[in-house]
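Quick one: structure for this chain?
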Amino acid sequence: MTSFDNPKCDDRIIDVDSIMELEQNQGEDPFIGFIDYARSVLLSEEEGCDSNGRREDTTGPGWSWIASRILKTCISYSSGVTSAILLSELSQAWNEQHRVGARRKRPECINQLKKKHGRKKLANTVSIDSIYEKNFLSLSSVLEGVIVDAFLLPGTNIYMLSLGDLWSSNTIDLYLHRRYYDLVDPNNGILKRGREIFLTGCYLRTASEGSGCPRLLPTEYLVMLLDEDQDDDAMLLGAQFCSDSFSSISLDAVSKGASYSLYARIESIGSLETQGNFSSVQRKQITLVDNDGVKLKFLLWGEQVLLANLLSVGSMLALDRPFIASSVDSTIETCEELCLEYGSATQIYLVPFIQQEEQVSISLTPNRYQGSRLPSTFDPSHGPKASQVILPCDSQGSIDFSNYPFQSFVTDLHDKMTNISLYGIVTDIVRERNTAEAIFSLRIEDTTGAIWAKLHFSKSWSLGRLSLGHTVYISGLTCSMTKKKRVEVLWFENDSGSSFVNLSYLPALLNSSCLHQLSYLSDLSIQSSQTQICRVWLDQIEHCHVNTRFLHITCGHFGNETSCGFKCNFCHCDCDAEVMRTFHLKITLADESTKVFAWCIGQTATELLQIYPDEFNELSEEEQVMYPSSLKSERFMVAIVNCRGKGYGAGEDLTLENEGLSWEITRALKCE
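Got it. Here's what it folds into:
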């Protein structure tokens, strides 16, 4: 097998012999099988006919979307899930997110926009239909609305906008904020039928709080979308926003009452910051670049940070009458002497970044690997008939795989891929020592090969216990090419779409028969890589080893007492205040087929021993020796993984935990 020059930074290896051996020793993964089954069900529900009676084909939900929703449901239902629960949750979530909404006839202005809709949906977007269903709307939610009508409430001077969206059959009325009244002029106003707007920071007035249907109360946080291909919008941009540039702004002129209308591209949107001695004021910095290449910061303060939910990198921002302040007064670190802020008279227009589309082959994995078998698991009548999938790419040419309909594999990874998900086995973990940041290198292996991924954490490790042999699902990965022409895989904890689930430690797995297949202990082999679920009893109790040690709560691994205090063997950090006493148990499991000597720690050991570590320590030495014999008749459902290291050397501290044993019990549940 190809060896690593540097196990921390090497990229991808494909070992054909190992793959064939793996495929011979493991059947269809029940978790993968259920994802395929669920997708076929969702596709069959979504099929229909267009307005001319022709059968419509649909790509349906992406593979990673289904996997993430299943795991999210398993986390919510920790006692276990059924096939019916999962399919119900998936169907409801998918219909809510991508509702066809043909029960009412959509206004023609929305139908026209839908035909040329090319931008990516914003992260916090909710549909109007979902507002009616839940009778709830959070302040951070985003509405991507289309104006169906603009009118005055009879007998008042209050303007209302009737809004629809591209995914809903319902419309909802919005009380327009007075700062936008001058834009509703019947002759020259921009807020008219067919205009797209983004809005956030809305309060919902439910039907019970007034008469008639639910309505949206006024919000200041509204952005008007422009289309450069439309003559009226192009004329507005040319007449109002092309005469001023960042270089033309003068603080002296501003002090004398001058105002500016500026047009620039959004280069980046910073993370949320807090200002002040008590960290009570929130702030976001948005970097803008005008046509001359000059950069300025656009600052949002306090509740204004909600506006950032309406913006996206790459889009063009037209700012009418922004508040202009000195950088010193705004306490930002920049080489520019001034910055822009959202003032009381500011109005925002947006030319959204339209993602380009790129054709990506459905089957990227060689035929004899599992990847190429995935399309065949679907009913041909349900799946798309095309041999290519259209996926969006950003301004840098990176292709977004969040909606890719099939599972991605290690051998599929290449340069400029974003929002990739992988499902595989952890074969090594090591913390990067040459940086103050919390970065861990994880070696993940699937049926096509293995790759190292760098996990970046905002503060410290936050994924709980993870060790060799555990089955994991990770989404939000990005792939790029290093200068040495190697694929580099990165994961950032706080990125949108990033998630990490350790299936071997998932409580719901043991009681969810739709996601696993019961195995006999005799089915276990050194080549086995999947997490196995077995029904067992404890055997040869007299030979079990029960010990208590201190464990780092954050990561679930042991540590050592040093002159400086307790140091974690996994995180390599001092953590005196974050330790707890736990079991280190080595015990024989048995079923009708054979016996296996395995080990476990933490909550799993507590479940098997049916006693807490502190209670066990209070027993006399003789009672501790005799205690395990009381468990002879107990039966358990357990999850078992092959934890034997493969000799890469980077995570040697993890192999010391198993003390030479090949099998770790990751979860246990007493059978009633």
